[in-house]
Amino acid sequence: MATPKRPPLVAVLIARDPAMREAIVANRKRITIREGYRLYKPGMTVMICCHLEPWCVQADIVAVRHCQLSKVVQEEWEADGYVSKTQMAEDLRRFYPKITWSSPVTIIKWENVRGQLVDDYNQEHILL
Length: 128
What we know:
This protein is α+β, with helices and mostly antiparallel strands. It has a single domain (10-121), classed as Sulfate adenylyltransferase, CATH 3.10.400. It contains four helices and five strands. It has helices spanning 18-25, 74-79, 85-95, 116-124; strands spanning 10-13, 31-35, 45-50, 55-68, 104-114. Strands 1-3-4-5-2 form a five-stranded mixed sheet. Strand 3 and strand 4 (55-68) form a beta hairpin. It is globular and about 50 Å long. The mean pLDDT is 92.
């Protein structure tokens, strides 16, 4: 009998920023903008993690959009925590020094963040 094929584990790497991590586990950050055409697809389960220190959660991708950086809409850059399109571009240059307004980007949205870090966060923030 043939073994069912499973898709490979896919990751979204994030920075060492504690505020960003908290926003992810608290379900306030559910989007990221990445330089280049990335092959993420809705329905994929991903690990959102840091390769430099132990931090990891799991999530389900619900939407992916490809466009030029200049075409990222206000709803998207605000959802990623930026107060302006200019701030978004300046911040992305920290990670992608050669990014320009005409550079291709991939906008990844996720839901259903889960894992021990989420469980721990929820336990610490229970409203009585």
